[in-house]
Amino acid sequence: MADSEMGEATLERKLAVYRNLDERFVIREERYKGQQFSHIYFMRLHHMRSQLQSLIPKWKPHLPVNTVLGLEEGKECIIVGTLYKHMKLKPSILDEYSKERSAIPLVKPHNFMSTDDHLILEDESGRVKLAGPMLAPSAFVTGIVIAVHGKETSEGDFFVEDFLEAGLAPQVDRPLDSREDKFVAFVSGLSVGTNAFNPLQFQLLVDHITGHLGDENEQRISSKIVRLVIVGNSMHISHGFFSGQTVAPKDHAKLTEPIRELDIFLTQLVAALPVDIMPGCNDPANYSLPQQPLHRCLFAGASAYNTFVSCTNPHHFELDNVQFVGTSGQNIDDLYKYSDAKDKIEFMERTLRWRHLAPTAPNTLGCYPYVDKDPFLIESCPHVYFVGNQEKYETRLLQGPDKQLVRLISIPRFCETGVAVMLNLRNLECHALSFSTNL
Amino acid sequence: MSSSNITSFFRQEKKTTKRKNDGGGVAIAKLCSKIRSDLAPLLVSSTDQLRSTKESTKEAEERLKEFDIDMRYGPSMGLTRIERWDRASALGLCPPADVESLLLATSTISHCLWQGRV
């Protein structure tokens, strides 16, 4: 609660009804029995195919839908399957075993695309190479399910004349009757424990949100913040500690100091408002998606409060019936390595159109080998879709063909930019909060 | 005193409490196996008893191998046949009912034909 000074009428913080919907990302009943990833691809294909099959009659009603094995040369038809992008520059474990020393360096840091990349469509019966100018490989990645219209050529390829993506999923109506402004704050990439972390800068953010900064007007603004979401990479544990070797006593402090420092800040925050904290790639959580919630014992101080909520990555929740879905960035960063777009927001749009949060999982993005589900499938379009740990703050309001409206937010790393993001629940408007300690 | 069973007060096995299910995300296989264990005695075919056991086992195994290879129901490696049948059923793929009754008979192999070989 933000108190105003001199014992005047207390300014109360606004409240919003919160529902945590992370259950499908929690690994609970699943048991690893040595299964491989074929099952998750089967579930994905099955689910997406039924969605596409309901859309095909509206798209091209007079064409037959075939399986890949059922293709006949020259016969025009539609096939539905999973895309595989063959990329010669993609690092492969088999390269380590090849007899010849290749001239290509083992790992290219930024992007593995090449002009030779080509697409292959695969279903349970077989696979076929896709040819033709309609599908530019640079815009696609392995793992998405689409329908293609075309015909088989004499070379055995499938010449694509047109393609269909599932498009934005149907969206539940957003409540429009709210008259008051309520804000959700997002911050990402705090990186406590690195040299990039500036404690004064983060303390400014904490003080602003908890209402200990500024005059009554500013406190009034802060009292409208109903929730803070910390989107991954709150601390940075040096990757050397993840090797599995025993940590020497002199290094214990390097391991525990960042966690303790973060806990001190978090305790100040949770004492003032509800906080959701998500794991990221540098946090002490599991590597593969979905990342499981950070353990409560890491936050001795903050976990004592019921306003402290440790969440999965990806994170799905509802605030006053507004649907939020977000990730700590791994899904978009992986798309950036294997495909091209004008900005990160465009990658985010594509994942919504493909109805899958992380299509490159499990191909190039670590993922749990589910047997009977694919939890990253987007069944209902969210109202707010956020991604953390990006280079800069970007946002766009995406409009879908069925009156869907999605606010896309790319949240920058706080340790580098000092920027946090505020979203207004009433009208989905977004603005940046910038903190600087440079005088 | 000496004739009393020592295991009555000195437990040989750890007393484990059944894990409470918090609801949500129950794996399909677990739910189905629970329902199935209640219904199993009712579903075993009576005609098996008339044929010689060896023949019927061979036939059953052939039928199950066909089920394993059938690509409509997804990959067969990494799960037991009954789990795969349950998954196919939950997805609305209508897997054959005779396969289900074969799987409930205890003499059939629970894993697919490639298990242990790949």
TrEMBL record, chain A:
UniProt source species: Rhynchospora pubera
Name the UniProt record assigns to this protein: DNA polymerase delta small subunit
Family to which this protein belongs: Belongs to the DNA polymerase delta/II small subunit family.
Swiss-Prot/TrEMBL keywords: DNA replication, DNA-directed DNA polymerase, Nucleotidyltransferase, Nucleus, Transferase
BP GO terms, sorted: DNA strand elongation involved in DNA replication; mitotic DNA replication
Subcellular localization(s) per the UniProt record: Nucleus
Location of the DNA polymerase alpha/delta/epsilon subunit B domain: 184-393
Catalytic activity: DNA(n) + a 2'-deoxyribonucleoside 5'-triphosphate = DNA(n+1) + diphosphate
InterPro entries, per the entry: DNA_pol_a/d/e_bsu (IPR007185), DNA_pol_D_N (IPR040663), DNA_pol_delta/II_ssu (IPR024826), PolD2_C (IPR041863)
GO CC aspect terms: delta DNA polymerase complex
TrEMBL record, chain B:
Short name of any one Pfam family annotated for the protein: DNA_pol_delta_4
Signal peptide boundaries: none
Biased segments, Polar residues type: 1-10
UniProt record, GO biological process: DNA synthesis involved in DNA repair; DNA-templated DNA replication
Region named Disordered: 1-23
Top-level taxon: Eukaryota
Name of protein: DNA polymerase delta subunit 4
